[in-house]
Design a protein that fits this description.
The protein is an alpha/beta fold and about 1200 residues long. About 50% of the residues lie in helices and about 15% in strands. It has 49 helices and 30 strands. It has a 7-stranded parallel β-sheet. The longest helix is centred in the N-terminal third of the chain and has 28 residues, at about 210-235. It starts with a helix and ends with a strand.
């Protein structure tokens, strides 16, 4: 492979720490693999002497595979190379893994260093969440019992009358956040101490919070000043507007004075603000001038904006600002103590259960590797020194997503000059996981680009080998305009450009051009104008109603579905490196969404409407599906029957099948109690059949409650599926296979849950409720894989590291989510805690200066990360990028953007960050770039669509049905009668079942032979309507039918081991065991004729089976047969037939003996043969197809005749 100069440097340079800033699609993984290979070949380093840290397990597996493939390739060139052969062996124990895998290895090898049991296990996320809830509740309960006054203040400050859940959530959130610090308790102690009054602090600007607020204020003031300067310059072009220009100049001087005061101190700025006045706008009604009016509007907009911002920051003087901040010390101190107590108890609980959680993995490893000296400095332990000696190099992939704990760990096992870091800060999108892009940025700014300095060497990989030039050009122009150190954390300039490295064949002009489709939701145009001229009022109304019915995202999703359909139907060409140009397929297309939780199901639905195969990884709807809700409601009832809402939900579901009128009747039985108690009263007082229905439901409820005491949760759930027939029922609903998969998944999840330290129904219900209220992942079952030929819908985060020929970036008009900034407490790794000031006694509440400061910092960091998320999205496309979004009123929004671009000063070729903070959607950012640069269609095609454009395309798909014109004379009555009386020539095929059982086939064959077949009855029986009813819907029937007796005899024969010896006593013992297990009922035992069974066991036929080398019983099968085998008139339609073979044996010679037990009352064997010959033919055919061997002998064993009958088939 030919490497670029920069790639070669990244592969071969050594002797210092190296940071590789690898742009999207620059081949960083290939470079990393090659570096590993060269370390092995040229430097003689064994692969187990390298530590290669990846971000995911999948990336680690891929890395190992690539390394192994590269070693084998080299081995083909040098087959005698013993070093390469050795590396293949060592690869199995190499340290190519995630950071958590490495930390876990450190713990397992050194568990004794931290007094940890050797047989610890990693608890699941669900188990940890439940344990956290248990511990925090215990902590609160203890504090309540002690009647701690400080705790009462804390509770009153941060809780509402509804409960203390808000305070518990705050404590748990801070605990979770501080785990990203190397020393969590020290971090919290330090940040709470920031609220302690310090000696010598007179002005609030001397505090960290005042510094942040004044810096932000000065930025806003400068922007306002620059905006006013532009207004003044335009006025100065017209001498007649001099006095208005002077007014603007006065405004500028006033804001400059405030700026200068802010440079000096907080109090001077505050006093200046208090005295700041703006001159009135001169009035001269004689002079009409457009520039004057525009200047007045611009001035008002700038003045209102800046004074609102000034008022929000300079609310009070230094003394008041300090007092508000320091007043929170007492409350935060108590909150800290609650968190410390929780932390201690949580650790104790985990030790009792011998478990660790995900965060413990890193912190325990750090504890093993780092210790503190007498001065409190961190130094490596002896264990860490051994790792330093072992590892020749430490390579870190996706370094921009590392956190501070991981940084500590990897630094302490390094030699300070052997760390190789690869990443791209522009793709740092995991701030919510406490990733710290500042680690990357610090090295990026301090490392030398040419030659390694004392800190390290920086290498830039800027060539993109993934995308076409158009995709790169669009990405470059967007981020050149919006990404800066202020927003995005890096100045995107020519040094950061994505440069073309891929070689794509040329396409037709405009074919690969990026597109931006904006759906304008403003429908002020008359509807008739959309559809056409003429009297079409009725059609107008229908379209108008359709538009009203479509939600914003449904309209966008419908449009995307249309575009995908067009690409497929028009056979859009994509380039394949192996095949050249080829037609696009569904799997070439991806729809990227910022968040899939709500949007993905809408897009999935719209695509499926057009029969476009789709795979979506959204998961939030799983717990809301009707089948899962029904079962979880039933579980809630079993745990707590007096919970009315889930009980009534179950009664109205397909499990209960009670009608609304029946539920009312039950409630009227007794009103002033729980609904369960009403049921108990109703079971005695109601009339049949409702009385029986209630009794049956209560019996089943009681049965399941009893089973919950001794069965595992998974077994209980499966019993409910079987007892109610609910599993089969949902299989017949729309998307039945998916619904059944969901139920299976709940069953499997219950099995996994019971492997944790929590047990029982109550805790499982708590766990499910926790999933519903939180953001934990409980993904829905899937019956289609993402690797099939499907359009994929995924979040931008999940797409990171992937690439697709055609990318749709949709829902770009969604605002950046800043909801977290409204919390009562904000926290930041560097700036600590930002509390809301709350005085519950005076009922006063407002934001403290500390919170305002953190809000500014956190808002900027969130917007910066969203820019990086957009960068990841745009760089996924290989050939075609299509961006879609909606706009309330495009014309009005366009005019507003033009006005803001004019007012907000632009410097160094970039859009003003303050304007970008105002417009916080991807679509707005892209539109601002297009407008400020006046981009042409050859770079990105912009289309403005009205909702009617999407709706009318939907209408085009409707099939027009011509009405019969009765005004025309009917010329040929005979011909018309012939048309009306026409019959389908193959009518028998319309009544044939698609799927049947062997028993039904036998029955149908018999009826055909007797010319008595009833198709309507046969179809109803075949569908199995009765079988689908839940068991408790049947009336009790104590009479044992002949069919039931036959079933019992078959069941008993199935339980007999033909290789064993039996007598009557042993058979009676077996029968009692079946009764004890509930397999048969006590009243059914006499239906099992043990004498008949004994006769069979002693028969020559049974002896023949016993001599077989292998005996198989109750084997299910499913085969296709031709309908013409039953009905001569039928065509070659296939019927799917399923059945169960009673028994077959394989002799030592390989011969196969097939047999079926029959309990029918018959006069002679001929009657049995005639009745069951077709059934045995099907069994024989199925067995021969399944075993790929000939069946040598076929028998019926008649339990009534006590003899075996050999069939000639």
């Amino acid at each position: 492979m030919k490497w670029t100069k920069e790639q070669s440097d990244a592969i071969y340079k050594k002797g210092s720490n190296i940071l590789v800033a690898a742009a999207a699609g620059s081949g960083k993984t290939a470079v990393l693999v090659e570096r590993i290979i060269q370390k092995i070949l040229n430097d003689g380093v064994d692969i187990d002497k390298l530590l290669v840290v990846t971000f995911t397990n999948a990336a680690a597996s891929e890395m190992r595979e690539r390394v192994l493939e590269a070693i084998y390739k080299k081995l083909d060139e040098e087959p005698e190379n013993e070093n390469l052969q050795k590396q293949i062996i060592l690869l199995g124990k190499s340290n190519i893994c995630t950071i958590h895998s490495f930390c876990l290895d450190v713990i397992k090898n050194n568990f004794f260093e931290i007094d940890l049991s050797a047989n610890f296990r990693i608890a699941s996320e669900e188990e940890i969440e439940l344990l956290k809830q248990e511990v925090i509740e215990d902590v609160f309960e203890r504090l309540y019992e002690e009647q701690d006054e400080e705790f009462e203040k804390l509770v009153n400050t941060y809780t509402e009358y509804r409960g203390d859940e808000a305070l518990k959530e705050i404590a748990l959130n801070i605990y979770k956040f501080m785990q990203s610090s190397p020393f969590p308790n020290e971090w919290l102690e330090e940040k709470v101490n920031m609220f302690e009054r310090k000696e010598g602090q007179a002005d609030f600007s001397e505090s960290i919070w005042g510094e942040i607020l004044l810096k932000n204020l000065k930025e806003e003031l400068l922007d306002a000043i620059n905006g006013l300067k532009l207004v003044r310059e335009k006025l100065e072009r017209y001498p007649e507007l001099e006095k208005w220009a002077l007014t603007i100049a006065t405004d500028i001087d006033g804001l400059k004075g405030l700026y200068d005061s802010a440079n000096e101190s907080w109090d001077k700025a505050y006093l200046y603000k208090e005295n700041l006045k703006f001159k009135s706008w001169p009035i001269d009604r004689k002079l009409e001038h457009l520039a004057k009016d525009e200047a007045q509007d611009s001035r008002k907009m700038i003045k209102d904006k800046i004074m609102k911002h000034v008022g929000n920051i300079l609310t009070y003087d230094s003394n008041a600002a300090f007092n508000d901040v320091y007043a929170m010390k007492e409350i935060l101190e108590k909150l800290k103590n609650v968190i410390f107590e929780f932390d201690k108890n949580f650790k104790d609980k985990k030790r009792e259960r011998n478990i660790i959680d995900f965060n413990d993995i890193e912190h325990y490893a750090l504890k093993i590797l780092v210790k503190k000296d007498e001065d409190g400095n961190c130094i490596p332990t002896d264990v860490a020194k051994k790792y330093q000696e072992k590892f020749e190099e430490i390579a870190i992939d996706e370094y921009q997503d590392s956190n501070q704990v991981q940084e500590y760990i990897l630094n302490v096992v390094s030699r300070n000059n052997n760390i190789f870091m690869v990443g791209d800060v522009k793709q740092s999108i995991y701030k919510f996981r406490q990733a710290c892009p500042e680690l990357f940025l610090g090295k990026y700014e301090n490392y030398s680009l040419e030659n390694a300095n004392e800190k390290g060497l920086k290498i830039q990989l800027f060539k993109n080998f993934r995308s076409r030039k158009n995709v790169l050009d669009v990405t470059n122009v967007v981020f050149e305009n919006i990404m800066s150190k202020t927003l995005g954390d890096i100045d995107y300039n020519e040094n950061e450009y994505l440069n073309l490295g891929a070689s794509y064949e040329d396409v037709e002009q405009g074919v690969g051009t990026a597109e931006l489709d904006i759906i304008d939701l403003n429908n002020d145009e008359p509807i008739s104008a959309w559809i056409g001229d003429g009297d079409e009022d009725e059609e107008d109304d229908s379209v108008e109603e359709e538009i009203k019915a479509l939600e914003k995202e449904e309209i966008e999703a419908s449009h995307v579905a249309q575009r995908i359909e067009e690409l497929i139907n028009n056979k859009y060409q994509v380039f394949d490196k192996k095949l050249g140009f080829r037609e696009i397929t569904y799997k070439d297309i991806v729809i990227l969404l910022r968040s899939t939780s709500k949007s993905a199901p809408i897009f999935e639905k719209e695509l499926l409407k057009r029969n476009i195969p789709v795979f979506s990884d959204s998961s939030n709807e799983y717990l809301d599906t009707i089948e899962i809700q029904t079962i979880t409601n039933l579980l809630k009832v079993l745990d707590n029957p007096i919970d009315d809402i889930p009980l009534v939900a179950v009664l109205r579901s397909e499990i209960g099948k009670f009608t609304d009128n029946e539920i009312v009747e039950i409630r009227l039985a007794k009103r002033d109690v729980s609904f369960y108690e009403s049921l108990l009263v109703a079971k005695d007082n109601l009339e049949e059949p409702l009385k029986g229905k209630v009794n049956k439901f209560l019996e089943d409820l009681n049965k399941w409650q009893n089973e919950s005491d001794y069965l595992s949760l998974a077994e209980l759930i499966w019993n409910i599926y079987v007892d109610t027939g609910f599993y089969n029922y949902v299989g017949l609903m729309p998307n039945g296979s998916l619904r059944q998969a969901n139920l299976k998944m709940l069953f499997e999840r219950a099995k996994e849950y019971e492997k944790t330290s929590f047990k029982g129904l109550f805790n499982f219900i708590r766990f499910v409720e926790k999933l519903k209220s939180g953001s934990s992942d409980m993904s829905a079952a899937k019956i289609i894989g993402e690797n099939e030929n499907v359009v994929r819908i995924m979040s931008i985060h999940k797409s990171k590291g992937l690439e697709f020929p055609v990318v749709f970036l949709s829902c770009t008009s969604k605002r950046v989510n800043l909801q977290d900034l409204n919390s009562n407490l904000l926290f930041h790794q560097k700036y600590g805690i930002g509390p809301q000031y709350i005085n519950y006694e005076k009922r006063v509440e407002y934001s403290t200066a500390a919170k305002d400061a953190l809000k500014i910092i956190s808002r900027d960091e969130t917007i910066s990360e969203e820019m990086r998320v957009l960068y990841v999205a745009l760089t996924r496309a290989k050939e075609k990028l299509i961006i879609t979004g909606t706009c309330k009123d495009y014309e009005k929004d366009n005019a507003k953007k033009n006005e803001f671009l004019r007012i907000y000063n632009t410097s160094s070729g970039k859009i003003n960050p303050l304007l970008l903070k105002k417009y916080i959607t991807y679509l707005d950012w892209i539109l601002l770039v297009i407008k400020s640069n006046e981009l042409k269609d050859d770079l990105i095609k912009v289309r403005i669509l009205k909702t009617k454009d999407i709706v009318s395309k939907e209408d085009e798909k409707e099939v027009a049905i011509k009405e019969f014109d009765f005004s025309k004379e009917i010329e040929n009555i005979e011909e018309l009668e012939k048309e009306f009386n026409w019959e389908y020539p193959n009518m028998i095929a319309t009544n044939l079942p698609i799927k049947s059982t062997v028993s039904k086939i036998k029955e149908m064959k018999s009826e055909v032979d007797n010319n008595s077949i009833d198709f309507e009855r046969m179809s109803n029986k075949e569908i199995g309507i009765e079988a689908l009813k839940p068991n408790f819907m049947y009336e009790e029937d104590t009479k044992i039918t002949g069919a039931r007796r036959g079933t019992l005899m078959h069941l008993f024969l199935q339980k007999i081991n033909l290789k064993e010896e039996y007598d009557i006593a042993k058979l009676e013992n077996l029968r009692e065991k079946l009764i004890a297990k509930g397999i048969i009922l006590d009243e059914e035992k006499n239906s099992i004729n043990l004498n008949k069974i004994m006769t069979f066991i002693n028969s020559d036929f049974a002896k023949k089976l016993r001599e077989c080398e292998k005996i198989e019983k109750e084997k299910a099968f499913c085969i296709k047969i031709k309908a013409s085998e039953i009905f001569e008139e039928a065509n070659d339609e296939d019927i799917l037939v399923q059945g169960i073979i009673d028994v077959y044996g394989i002799t030592k010679n390989g011969d196969i003996i097939l047999a079926d037990y029959k309990t029918d009352f018959v006069e002679n064997e001929i009657e049995l043969v005639n009745k069951y010959q077709k059934q045995l033919e099907i069994y024989k055919d199925a067995l021969e197809k399944g075993l790929l061997k000939k069946v040598n002998e076929v028998y019926i064993y008649s339990l009534y005749l006590n003899k075996d009958i050999k069939l000639s088939l």
